[in-house]
Amino acid sequence: MSRSSRGAWPAVLADQRGFTMTEMLMVTTVLAVILGGVILVQHQGQQAYLFGSHRIEAQQNGRAALELMSRELRSALSVSAVAGTTDLTFVDSAGATVQYTLSGATLSRTVGGASAPLIGGVQSLAMTCYSGWDGSTNTGTVTTVPGAVKLVRLRLVTSTEDAAGPGSPGDQRVTMESLVRLRNVP
User: Fold this and answer.
1) Residues 6+ apart with CB under 8 A from 68
2) C or N: which end of the chain has fewer Cβ atoms within 10 Å?
3) CB neighbours of 76 closer than 8 A, spacing ≥ 6?
4) How does pLDDT run across 127-185, given as a tens digit for each residue?
5) Residues β-bridged to residue 152
6) 151-159 vs 122-134, strand pairing mode
7) Whole-angstrom distance between the N-terminal and C-terminal Cα of the chain?
8) Alpha-carbon span 19 to 16, nearest angstrom
């Protein structure tokens, strides 16, 4: 049988070039490894972003609350406080009674009987009152007598307002502290 009698089909098949099964498996394996690496890098980037954004949220909440409390305390005319409590009441420079209270995870500010939440996500708040302070040793004399208060140490621990599981990127805690000297107290 001559080639022409068999037709063109076997000649076309003999000229076909393609990939072997081994080559296809190798390419698939290499692509899977590359894709796995890309997914891993993307996941790590997402975790870093979540970590940073939750940390910033906790810092901004704490900084805003601590700044407002410090500013108002500096100009306070008198303070009613007990060392270590989470409740602080004072009379501001305008004569209004201001109270900061921690209830659950919400820090509230009350002025003239009207209460408003200041920030959420507060883990702890400690207010320590001092009648005197030695700057050279950074020590003070703790007082519970309202009329003797000259300085107040505010220590605030905040986290994000959204609940996050322990060990997750969203579980961020920030501790901030400020020592406030009362300017208008004799």
Assistant:
1) 109, 118
2) N
3) 90, 91, 92, 93, 98, 182, 184, 185
4) 888 888 777 777 788 887 878 888 888 999 988 766 666 666 667 788 899 999 888 87
5) 129, 180
6) antiparallel
7) 122
8) 10
Integer Cα distance of 89 and 110 in angstroms: 9
Token pair 């870093």 is at which residue? 48
> Mean pLDDT across the stretch 27-32?
96
What are 2's two structure tokens? 């001559």
Residue partners of 181: CB distance under 8 A and separation at least 6: 74, 133, 150, 151
Question: Residue 104: how many CB atoms within 10 A of its CB?
Answer: 8
Q: Which residues 6+ apart lie within 8 Å of 13 measured at CB? A: none
What lies within 8 Å, CB to CB, of 95 at 6+ separation is: 77
Considering the entire predicted model, what is its pTM?
Answer: 0.68
Give me 147's structure tokens.
Answer: 């009329």
Q: Are 115 and 98 in contact (CB under 8 A)?
A: no
Burial 116-127 (b: 16+ CB within 10 A, else e): eebbebbeebeb
Token pair 């080639």 is at which residue? Answer: 3
